[in-house]
Write a structure and sequence with these properties.
single chain, eight-stranded mixed β-sheet, 26 helices, 22 strands
Length: about 750
């Protein structure tokens, strides 16, 4: 067998997947055992039994990594341990990861003191144990902490060093990394410094959101991640220097170069792409004195196996998958290079970039909800100039340790290339068709894509059977893409978990989007509120960058504050208020001003008015022209209808207003009721529930909220109705074809 590691890796991957997703892996194990015997009969090799052992190890290692959480009974605690990693978070806070008796803990601190690997620290603060995401499209902080091996986060009020540091390589590396970062800060302006740090020390925490978006949209995000290209450049420099010292001793050269490269890996941080690159480089170097031909794919399989043995949950890391997908494309592209003559170098780069992009597309769509093909073009400029940035950046940061002027001079080539990058990437990012927001694609579509890609690549002959299979796969892929839009024509109502507030997002098969309330919380900054924190990630997850209509039931903070950050983040075509005499409020005025500033149309409606788009109909049932009272009494009541399916949205309506609606013989009948006022006992009377006649009731309330919502009296009135509460169930998502519907929750 040419690549035996591949069989072992496949079995090990199956074990990891089973360990995470299958509660009882016995049935799967039995199937794999039977398959093992079949493979043994075919290949007559004991390798398949070794692979079976690795599958068992994969299941076991994953189960251990996903083991029970640490029980923390006090909100404020004190922890003490050894520092093993430090970095800076996006908001400027320092992250200090320490090893304690109970496991690894991440400390978040604003302390100005520097901490290094090997320091002993004691910290006191508030405990934060992340939960699983409660909204579709939200970042899975829980799995991230599991993957990093962290028990919990501690937001420190106090932190101090308590003992002399443990001197050693990691401590020295930590000090050197800090010194180089300081040197870079002295040489370059803030934006350029953040990019040079990413290239030289692997520290990406100072890169701004705008810069990160520019490199992502321009298809050059790999420049900011130390990976194969960077490691290859460093390896080439190391081999060149050692080769000059030991020109005739290949074994010594390889051994020294490998040791230095491994030290470099620990210095810049053991991210999956770095570990993969170093392992592949070491294997490639070792093949020379052994007189063996290096097999890139086999080296890649070995690297993947090593990384996943170290931490099986890395399999679910987007960086890991992208690293291996792109390098697979690059290795395969080498077999398709048949270019000669003029322009060969440019054609080789274009071929490499094309294959790397094709192999990465499904992963970027699945994890980041968008794809960019700009890199196929921009890498014609970016890739040839990257060595300049790496070498100049490293030399300038080292020179800057001794003399800032010298460091600045040496860094001029890197600075010039970064300016060229900015121009090229800005142009590429401005071309619409090079970037596309896809939303999260179905995992089945990812599988179909890769199978089709492999079939196309391997089908170099004229075998009609393979062409037929390829055609069937392409049709299946196309069917998956267009099925909802042209066949099923589903609509989706997502009652978002925005804490103690109301928010629902309605989408249809044509990606029309309607938002009813946005939630809002005073403990979030205005520009970072629920519109940006919760609604925007969901829209990205759905592949949507524009809102058609935003209904604000009434201008209370917990219903409307998030609209400000939403309008800052995406284009909102129209914002709709009830035509009611609300109390004067700063928030209401801010929303009106923000709408005018962003070019959002403002509309006021009352009972009897209808807003619609396609088959989505929104009928205002309340307030009436003569309605009076406080802001809650003016809550807009909207009945949403899609074919024969309907949802009633009631804002913070009180029992008195419910009585008025019923007395006016308004048809409030609906399949689903969004329960008023977060389940307050002063809303949702028995009479109103009976008039609605709903099968499903959804209550939007925050976990452990101050008001005790939903109230037991309200729940008693809804006892005949299937009820969901966002505080307990997370986001409640209802999918319907206009006739039948299904309900899913995030918990």
């Amino acid at each position: 067998m040419k690549r035996p590691v591949l069989i072992i890796l496949i079995y090990y991957l199956a074990g990891i997947i089973a360990g995470r997703y299958i509660d009882n892996g016995t049935a799967l194990f039995a199937v794999v055992l039977a398959l093992t015997f079949v493979l043994f009969r075919v290949y007559k090799s004991k390798l398949v039994f070794i692979a079976l052992i690795f599958m068992t190890l994969g299941m076991g290692f994953t189960a251990v990594r996903l083991g029970s959480d640490l029980e923390v009974y006090d909100k404020v605690i004190t922890v003490e341990g050894k520092v093993y990693e430090t970095s800076c978070s996006e908001n400027g806070r320092m992250r200090v990861d320490i090893k304690t008796d109970n496991g690894r803990v991440r400390i978040m601190t604003d302390a100005g003191e520097d901490f290094y690997t090997g320091d002993t620290v004691r910290a006191t603060g508030n405990v934060d144990i992340p939960e699983k995401p409660t909204n579709p499209g939200a970042f899975d902080d829980y799995m991230y902490m599991k993957r990093e091996g962290l028990k919990f986060r501690l937001y420190a009020d106090e932190i101090e060093k308590t003992d002399e540091p443990i001197m050693g390589f990691m401590y020295a590396a930590s000090r050197l990394r800090k010194a180089l970062n300081d040197s870079i800060d002295r040489i370059y302006d803030d934006n350029e410094a953040s990019l040079i740090k990413a290239v030289v020390t692997g520290d990406k925490s100072y890169i701004s959101d705008d810069t990160r978006a520019l490199y992502t949209d321009g298809g050059a995000i790999h420049v900011l991640c130390i990976s194969g290209l960077h490691v290859g450049i460093v390896a080439a420099i190391i081999i060149f220097i050692i080769g000059k010292i030991f020109p005739k001793d290949k074994e010594t050269c390889v051994m020294l170069a490998s040791c230095i490269l491994l030290a470099y890996m620990f210095f810049i941080g053991m991210t999956p792409s770095v570990v993969r690159s170093v392992i592949m480089a070491v294997i490639a170097m070792a093949a020379v004195p052994l007189g063996r031909k290096n097999d890139g794919l086999n080296s890649m399989f070995i690297a993947a196996l090593v990384i996943l043995i170290m931490n099986p949950l890395t399999l679910f890391n987007a960086g890991f998958l992208l690293s291996f997908a792109t390098v697979s494309g690059i290795i395969i592209s080498l077999g398709y290079r048949r270019f000669d003559g003029k322009g060969k170098y440019i054609k080789d780069i274009a071929s490499t970039s094309l294959f790397a992009t094709l192999f990465a597309l499904p992963i970027t769509a699945y994890y980041f909800y968008s794809v960019s093909i700009a890199g196929i073009i921009t890498n014609l400029v970016v890739l040839p100039l990257t060595p300049v940035v790496v070498v100049s950046g490293i030399l300038s940061s080292v020179a800057g340790l001794f003399n800032v002027m010298l460091g600045t001079f040496v860094g001029l080539p890197a600075l010039a290339v970064l300016k060229i990058y900015e121009v090229v990437l800005s142009f590429a990012a401005s071309v619409p068709f090079l970037n596309s927001l896809t939303g999260q694609i179905d995992i089945l579509l990812c599988i179909f894509y890769y199978v089709a890609l492999v079939l196309i690549i391997t089908n170099t002959g004229k075998d009609r059977r393979i062409k037929l299979v390829s055609a069937v796969y392409v049709l299946c892929m196309f069917g998956l893409i267009v099925s909802d839009r042209f066949l099923f024509r589903n609509a989706e109502i997502a009652f978002m978990d925005v804490g103690q507030g109301d928010c629902a997002v309605i989408t249809d098969h044509n990606k029309n989007v309607f938002v009813i309330d946005t939630g809002g919380a005073l403990y979030y900054d205005e520009e970072e509120n629920t519109g940006k924190r919760f609604i925007y990630p969901y829209l990205q997850y759905k592949g949507i960058d524009e809102v058609d209509m935003l209904f604000i039931s009434h201008p209370d903070t917990d219903h409307a504050l998030g609209s400000l950050s939403l309008m800052d983040t995406v284009k909102v075509e129209e914002i709709i208020f009830a035509d009611f005499d609300y109390e004067e409020s700063e928030l209401y005025d801010k929303i009106i001003r923000k709408a005018k500033d962003t070019g959002t149309k403002i509309c006021f409606i009352e009972a009897g008015d209808v807003k619609s788009k396609g088959e989505m109909v929104f009928e205002c049932l309340y307030p009436f022209e003569d309605s009076k009272g406080d802001d809650n009494a003016g809550s807009m009541v909207i009945k949403f209808t899609y074919k024969d399916f309907s949802v009633l949205f009631t804002g913070d309506l009180g029992i008195a207003q419910e009585r008025i609606i019923i007395d006016n013989n308004i048809d409030v009948g609906a399949d689903v009721l969004k329960v008023s006022h977060h389940g307050s006992k002063y809303s949702t009377s028995e009479e109103f529930v009976e008039a609605v006649g709903c099968d499903i009731a959804v209550i939007s309330a925050g976990k452990n909220n101050y008001y005790g919502h939903p109230h037991s009296e309200t729940m008693e009135r809804l006892k005949e109705t299937e009820s969901f509460v966002t505080a307990f169930d997370g986001a409640v998502v209802i999918k319907t074809n206009g006739d039948k519907y299904s309900v899913e929750t995030m918990k």
